[in-house]
Design a protein that fits this description.
It is a single chain. The protein is mainly alpha-helical. Helices cover about 70% and strands about 0% of the residues. Helix 1 runs antiparallel to helix 2, helix 2 runs antiparallel to helix 5 (about 110-120) and helix 5 (about 110-120) crosses helix 6. It is globular and about 55 Å long.
Amino acid sequence: MYFPRLIVPAGSVITSFVDFLITMGLMALMMAWYRFAPDWRVLTLPLFVGLSFAASFGAGLWLSALNVEYRDFRYIIPFIVQLGLYVSPVGFSSSIVPPEWRLLYSLNPMVGVIDGFRWALLRGQSPLWWPGVLTCILVTSGLCLGGIWYFRRMERTFADVI
C-alpha cells in the first residue's frame, strides 16, 4: 500500500504551525489589552508566515532524510538548532550587524523572517532591510526545493533502512 512519506516531515511542521497560530492569537489578545494596534504592515504577515513555514519544511526534509540515512545524525540536530538560535536575530536586532556583513548574514533564512515579523507587528519601529528579505526568499526557495529533491531521492531507500 502506498503511503506518501512526505507527510511525515510535513506533519511535524504543521503541528508547530498550529502552536504558532495559538500563540499569535494570544499575542493579538495582549496587543488588544494594551491597546497596541498594528498598522497596514500587518497585511504582509502572511508572506513572513509562509517563508517561515517553507524554511522549516525544507530544513525538516533535509534533516529527516539525513537522519534516516545516517542514524547518528539525530545527535547533531540539537547542536544545529542551538547554533541556529545564536545566529538568528532572536535576542538582538539584525541592524547591529555591520553593513559589509549584512548580505552574508542574510543567508540565514530566519533573519528575513524574524526581521519581517518585527517590522510587520511593531509598526515599522524595527527597520526592515529589503535585500535581506529577498535573500531570505531565494535561500528558502532553494532550501525547500533542495529538501524535496533530496527527500525524494532518498525515499526509495527508507524502507530498507527502517
